[in-house]
Write a structure and sequence with these properties.
The protein has helices spanning 7-28, 56-67, 86-95, 107-113, 126-139, 141-146, 148-165, 176-192, 202-217, 224-227, 230-233, 237-265, 274-285, 289-301, 303-319, 321-334, 350-362, 395-399, 423-426, 450-467, 505-508; strands spanning 70-75, 78-83, 372-373, 378-380, 383-385, 390-393, 468-472, 482-485, 488-491, 496-500. It is of the alpha+beta class. Strands 1-2-6-3 form a 4-stranded mixed sheet. Strands 4-5 form a two-stranded antiparallel sheet. It has a two-stranded antiparallel sheet with strand order 7-10. Helix 7 runs antiparallel to helix 8 (176-192), helix 7 (148-165) packs parallel to helix 20 (450-467) and helix 15 runs parallel beside helix 20 (450-467). The model is unreliable at 1-5 and 512-519 (pLDDT under 50). Bound molecules: protoporphyrin IX containing FE.
Amino acid sequence: MFPVVSGSANVVLPLILGAILLTILPWTLRKNIVDKDGHPIPPGPLLRYAFLRGDPERSLHVWAKRYGPLFSVWMGNQLCVVISDPQVARDLFVTNGSIFSSRKEYFMKNQLILRGRAITASQYGDRWRQHRRLVMHVLAPKAVQKLGHILENEARDMISSLVHETKEGVLPINPALYIGRFTFNNLLMISFGIRSDSISDPLFQRLLAFSMEFMELTGPLSNIIDFIEPLQKLPSYMKSRGHKLHEDLIEVYGAMILRVKARMDAGEDVPDCLVKTLLETQEDEKLDWEDLCMLCAVFIFVVHSTSSTIQWFLALITLHPEIQAQAHAELDRVVGQENWPTPEDGSRLPYIRAIIKEVQRTHAPFWIPAPHYSTDDFVYNGMYIPKGTLMVLDCYTIHHNEERYPDPFTFNPDRYLGDNLSCAESVNLSDAMQRDHWTFGVGRRICPGITLAERMLWLAISRLLWSFTIHEVPREPISLKECSGAFGRTPLPYRVNLLPRHDTLSSVLVVDDEMNVKI
Ligand code: HEM
């Protein structure tokens, strides 16, 4: 027989329940802290989160509407402040950049995989400045200018492969891998001085797989292991994937670096590239082996950002034939049929430029760019932002602000007509509200590859438009649903018909083989 519940058990049970609640509550409810002068942290949701599922930017968008352009949310024990207003972003990240330019030591991305290296994971300080200075050897505007022949060659190669694979427009094609190889080869040439000949190249496939694994493991608000610290001490599948990726990166990129070194040691004429710069300066700059491997790895990880933008362009332009017709008319009027557009034609083709900006606004590859991290206490408009806060730029909400972009969910390049600045120039506008879009981030950590990315996008998109009329394949509707794939947020896989527009295309495509350095 069970004993009848005694009087003492009646007291013990609520006590146990109360103790459990007291232990759990601080882990589930937000903590409203104030500074010594009573300034509260920005308002925000009542609950704490271990991670944000699915598309985290949608949650941020809902909260931004409810709590305003500066709100806070707790992820586990980490306070995050979310910024979804251009002026606030400028005030914090630019005007007060000395406080808001570090990075959180994310467990997965920064500690396990990149080990605090590769610029993007570096804390704000001398080491970050050193890495940024080194990559600017190949990314500064003047350096990008010198890369012109590489980028031109890859654009030509991409168009040529598309013409060939579609049998001059007879067969439909899924363009994703060809676009991926265009971006990948540019980055390989710039970092290692080599290129890949085919989309079935094992190295191309392997490095793309690393890039995809990196994307999957390192979402800024989606990993429970980043925010619930006790989990970091336990063995887990996620942890072993992070370790494995780190080891793979060292092995594969290490071997590629050694190959460049062997060529340099043998007195071969290695083209100027990131690895050459790093090897030549390794001793003076006191770079260790992991620095070298991770700096190179991050150059290839960015492949998806440019690729996904080009994939979005093709999907959107196919679904908007009236915009495509207007672009073709501009190209025919300004460039004609004998030659295709060059980077110098940018200012003469404002509609093509507007299309590219609108693609970037409507489908930024990172709706939540790598968050910044604050290194000092700060009070902004009476709200307290403590040292150690994760600073999140909410690009999704900024890009769908009705005031700045009327009818924001419509793809409408016209909104950018009259904007004659490149993205790199637009960043510096004193009126933050007038900046074209925020796809490249903000402040001192802004994407250092912005000039290169713009040049790649221009060459790929203007030449795809010049070369082809792009049609939907009958009975294969293109979906604009965003999905996470090998290139980040891409459209679901689709095929298009690419019909050559000019008889002159084949002569324009005559390949200049001189600079092709094969793997
Ligand atoms: C369309 C293409 C690209 C987009 C949309 C893009 C976007 C971004 C964004 C949003 C950030 C974070 C900025 C911030 O912290 O505020 C970033 C950082 C970075 N990007 Fe890009 N990027 C692109 C292409 C490239 C290219 C081509 C390279 C170089 C080859 C590159 C190299 C980097 C590096 C090294 C960082 C880390 C900077 C730091 O932490 O200081 N990106 N990029």
